[in-house]
């Protein structure tokens, strides 16, 4: 049954038309050609790589060097984050007094890695730590009074929230009434008034001038550990029995949480992820080593490994079960336990994928059957039978398909939204909530690109109408054209091992730091075939063995002619010890 009523349908005389993925506009990143030539010459770089760098604002040799060789020494001072000094003082006091410290985390990868990082660090310092992560279905998102009670009953005198807490005014006050102090570590949109915690560290605070708005919670947590370690060092805390911890060993967690939370992979985030990938490749953390084994990874470990293989499996614990399983895996010290937990998370991820496939199909069907939703600037769909643990992923799939913001509401009115660059989702929800009836919206939180919502029972249609009105006023038809940016035209003959290796130097890639992609025109694919999973594969240069792979494009095979234009990333495909050149397609026509 739908959450309240099905989306408005077309009149009986109008036959529903099936929607297709939105056509994309291809655009070349604008660059100063002279700057490209200067960077290529001054930094001794291949011109395609110099073109990529200039397209991302790296327009001189010194900046190119810093970009291509990210260094931890370039990270800004952690104490420059607003609230950091107060948090460090309170934690140092807890360590000196031997207080039990409670950690309250979120159930996604950012929250799980933040919880693990802080737990490991504080235990190394000799603290007694208790931790809690809410059950998505029972407790919902964020700090709760029941969570405070749980940690208080375990003896905590200080609670540190990670990846949540910046809007938890009542819960922080409840903790204070129970005699507990609270330190908040968060990166979500900051309310007008901060909760009355001992410290609130959030890079989005208006008085935070460090310029670290892109940090996710695990990045902020890592900065807290750096600042606390320095504070303790200056006070002579460390000794032979309690040596100073090497926080570089925790950078695998920072990289994982940063990539999985899809925050911009620029500036310090890019430095942290680059260093964290180096740590991950060493294979020291048993849990991540076991998780890599169940994914079948035997080759390159890069940002894509974190985002597409490790992250979803860790997320599956909090989506369908107990997120503390993911924490247990990351903290595992026994190889057998690590492998058992990794196998369990892999099974839960498989269940999640099946749920996702079914709900995505049902959501697309709701759009297909609704004349209003087919043409609306934002997609809002819902069904009480949809599992709230996967609605966020479904919303992402709808954004990819339709090129529009999407909010998906599941069981109990619990929903999740994802957006496009040109629509600030949190601000849009604020506008809905500002109406006299709040548009049926009970609660929400998040940021520009992602948000969680709670819609009152029977109010999905009202919420849909309210959000559509806001989006209609803020988005033009041009805003809803999906755009595929590329780094200019490139001849197929230029694709060789040397070029691919040079482009790899610009890694790691992610949001706001897209991997290089070029326009290849007039390719003649030979032996086009459909692979399991709906992917297309063909040969485009038989003499040199260059192949083309287009993931998820099987449904477009019938519309392709004898030649195709593609926007694609040239890369080396390593499989069973063999290397082949391929173009990984972003879009084709």
Describe the structure.
The chain is of the alpha/beta class and 589 residues long. It has three domains: 141 residues, Diaminopimelate Epimerase, Chain A, domain 1 (Roll), CATH 3.10.310; 209 residues, inorganic pyrophosphatase (n-terminal core) (Alpha-Beta Complex); 105 residues, OB fold (Dihydrolipoamide Acetyltransferase, E2P), CATH 2.40.50. 40% of the residues lie in helices and 18% in strands. It contains 19 helices and 18 strands. The strands form four sheets. The protein has a six-stranded mixed β-sheet. Strand 10 and strand 11 form a beta hairpin. The longest helix is centred in the middle third of the chain and has 34 residues. It is globular. The two termini are 39 Å apart. The N terminus is likely disordered.
The largest sheet is: 6 strands, mixed
CATH topology grouping of the largest domain: inorganic pyrophosphatase (n-terminal core)
Indicate how many domains the architecture comprises: 3
Arithmetic mean of pLDDT: 92
Helix content class: 40-55%
> How many angstroms separate the termini?
39 Å
Structural class call reads alpha/beta
Net shape: globular
Name of the top-level CATH class of the largest domain? Alpha Beta
Number of strands: 18
């Amino acid at each position: 049954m739908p959450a309240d009523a099905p989306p408005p349908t077309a009149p009986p005389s109008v036959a529903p038309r099936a929607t297709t993925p939105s056509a994309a506009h291809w655009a070349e990143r604008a660059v100063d050609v002279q700057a490209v030539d200067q960077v290529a010459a001054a930094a001794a770089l291949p011109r395609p790589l110099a073109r990529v760098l200039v397209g991302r604002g790296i327009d001189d040799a010194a900046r190119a060097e810093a970009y291509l060789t990210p260094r931890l020494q370039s990270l800004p001072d952690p104490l420059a984050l607003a609230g950091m000094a107060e948090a460090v003082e309170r934690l140092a006091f807890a360590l000196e007094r031997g207080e039990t410290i409670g950690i309250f985390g979120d159930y996604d990868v950012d929250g799980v890695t933040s919880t693990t990082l802080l737990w490991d660090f504080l235990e190394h310092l000799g603290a007694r730590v208790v931790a809690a992560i809410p059950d998505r279905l029972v407790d919902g998102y964020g700090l709760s009074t029941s969570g405070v009670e749980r940690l208080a009953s375990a003896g905590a005198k200080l609670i540190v929230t990670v990846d949540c807490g910046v809007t938890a005014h009542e819960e922080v006050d409840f903790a204070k009434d129970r005699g507990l102090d609270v330190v908040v570590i968060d990166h979500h949109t900051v309310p007008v008034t901060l909760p009355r915690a001992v410290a609130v560290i959030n890079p989005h605070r208006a008085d935070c001038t460090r310029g670290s708005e892109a940090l996710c919670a695990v990045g902020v947590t890592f900065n807290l550990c750096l600042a606390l370690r320095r504070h303790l060092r200056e006070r002579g805390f460390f000794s032979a029995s309690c040596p100073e911890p090497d926080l570089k060993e925790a950078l695998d967690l920072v990289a994982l949480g940063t990539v999985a939370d899809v925050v911009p992979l620029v500036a310090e985030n890019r430095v942290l992820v680059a260093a964290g990938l180096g740590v991950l490749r060493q294979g020291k953390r048993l849990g991540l080593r076991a998780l890599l084994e169940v994914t079948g990874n035997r080759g390159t470990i890069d940002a894509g490994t974190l985002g597409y293989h490790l992250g979803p499996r860790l997320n599956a614990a909090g989506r369908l079960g107990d997120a503390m399983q993911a924490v247990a895996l990351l903290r595992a010290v026994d190889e057998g336990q690590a492998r058992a937990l990794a196998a369990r998370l892999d099974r839960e991820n498989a269940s999640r994928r099946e749920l996702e496939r079914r709900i995505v199909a049902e959501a697309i069907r709701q759009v297909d059957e609704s004349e209003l939703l087919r043409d609306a600037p934002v997609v809002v769909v819902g069904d009480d039978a949809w599992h709230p643990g996967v609605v966020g992923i479904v919303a992402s799939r709808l954004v990819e398909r339709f090129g529009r913001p999407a909010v998906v509401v599941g069981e109990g009115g619990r929903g999740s939204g994802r957006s496009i660059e040109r629509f600030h989702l949190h601000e849009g929800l604020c506008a809905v909530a500002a109406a006299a009836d709040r548009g049926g919206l009970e609660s929400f939180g998040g940021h520009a690109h992602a948000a969680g919502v709670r819609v009152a029972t029977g109010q999905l249609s009202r919420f849909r109408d309210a959000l559509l009105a806001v989006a209609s006023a803020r988005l033009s038809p041009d805003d809803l054209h999906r755009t595929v940016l590329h780094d200019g035209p490139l001849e197929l003959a230029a694709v060789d091992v040397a070029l691919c290796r040079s482009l790899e130097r610009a890694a790691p890639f992610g949001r706001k730091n897209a991997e290089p992609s070029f326009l290849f025109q007039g390719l003649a694919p030979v032996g086009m075939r459909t692979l399991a999973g709906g992917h297309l594969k063909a040969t485009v240069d038989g003499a040199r063995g260059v192949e083309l792979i287009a993931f998820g494009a099987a449904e477009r095979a019938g519309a392709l002619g004898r030649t195709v234009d593609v926007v694609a990333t040239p890369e080396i495909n390593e499989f069973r010890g063999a290397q082949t050149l391929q173009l990984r397609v972003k879009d084709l026509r």
